[in-house]
Q: What sequence folds into this?
């Protein structure tokens, strides 16, 4: 595995590979890699000649400074995992390589998708995501880019960005990898004690029940029951539970409102923000 810290050198190497006809798969991460990240890397490896992983804890997408300071950074362990998976290139830049001093990074037109749901809870997060992803796409010029369904809203924002910038990149959305009890894997899960990690499976279980319910009750009735349950759990603080059109992210109140519908939720459990979602219907 070749490790690049310089964006210019990486650009030169990947331009050479692209010009010789190689396909490039790209998996952006913030490190603290787990089996969820590994699934994206393996998928990329199976579909491309070269797989590039980036590890960059993007300061622009953190609205909470303590979250940024406390974000795990086990780089040696991450490099071992990437070598084990057989990743070809790691891009591990400093902040200056990504946000070149003196270069303006204007806000992008995200059609308001950055201001709702997760965006409302974490102001600036999706502008930060879009800016770093745009910069990485320009440097890496991937044929395919791999993102997890775990961050559902992020995948919709990236899809929008690709169209906005008329980039010739295929977005590949990969399924959520879960811990044995059902909690969606996340670098932030490390902050939960083992016993709480098992208990936190109530989030996924409630999403599964919700999906079942919304086929024989109205979406609104099913939602009321689920919200009531999620707010009754000791130590849990429900931030949001919303059903959306999976293309526009607009809220829907009935399954018939869109061809592609997902339920998105964030529950703060033991002070850790846990994101999860479930696809209710996909008739695209
Ligand atoms: P992060 O390092 O948290 O920014 O995540 C990097 C990529 O891995 C994003 O596209 C995430 O959606 C994806 N990812 C994170 N956790 C999981 C998971 N449990 N299953 C599948 N993909 C995931």
A:
């Amino acid at each position: 595995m070749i490790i690049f810290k310089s964006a210019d050198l990486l650009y030169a190497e990947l331009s050479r590979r692209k010009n010789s006809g190689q396909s490039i798969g790209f998996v952006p991460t913030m490190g603290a890699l787990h089996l969820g990240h590994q699934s994206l890397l393996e998928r990329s490896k199976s579909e491309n000649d070269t797989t590039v992983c980036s590890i960059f804890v993007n300061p622009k997408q953190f609205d909470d400074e303590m979250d940024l300071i406390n974000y795990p950074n086990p780089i040696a362990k991450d490099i071992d995992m990437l070598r084990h998976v057989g990743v070809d290139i790691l891009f591990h830049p400093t902040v200056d390589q990504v946000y070149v001093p003196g270069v303006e990074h204007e806000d992008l037109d995200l059609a308001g998708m950055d201001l709702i749901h997760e965006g409302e809870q974490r102001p600036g997060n999706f502008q930060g995501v879009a800016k770093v992803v745009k910069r990485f796409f320009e440097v890496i010029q991937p044929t395919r880019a791999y993102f997890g369904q775990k961050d559902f809203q992020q995948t919709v924002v990236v899809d929008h960005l690709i169209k906005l910038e008329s980039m010739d990149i295929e977005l590949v959305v990969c399924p959520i990898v879960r811990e044995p009890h059902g909690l969606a894997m996340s670098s932030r899960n490390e902050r939960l004690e083992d016993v709480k990690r098992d208990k936190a499976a109530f989030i996924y279980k409630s999403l599964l029940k919700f999906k079942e319910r919304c086929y024989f009750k109205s979406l609104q009735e099913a939602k009321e029951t689920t919200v009531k349950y999620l707010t009754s759990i000791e130590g849990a603080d429900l931030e949001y539970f919303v059903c959306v059109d999976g293309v526009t992210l607009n809220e829907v109140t009935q399954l018939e409102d869109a061809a592609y519908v997902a339920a998105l939720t964030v529950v703060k459990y033991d002070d850790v923000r846990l994101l999860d979602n479930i696809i209710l219907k996909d008739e695209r």
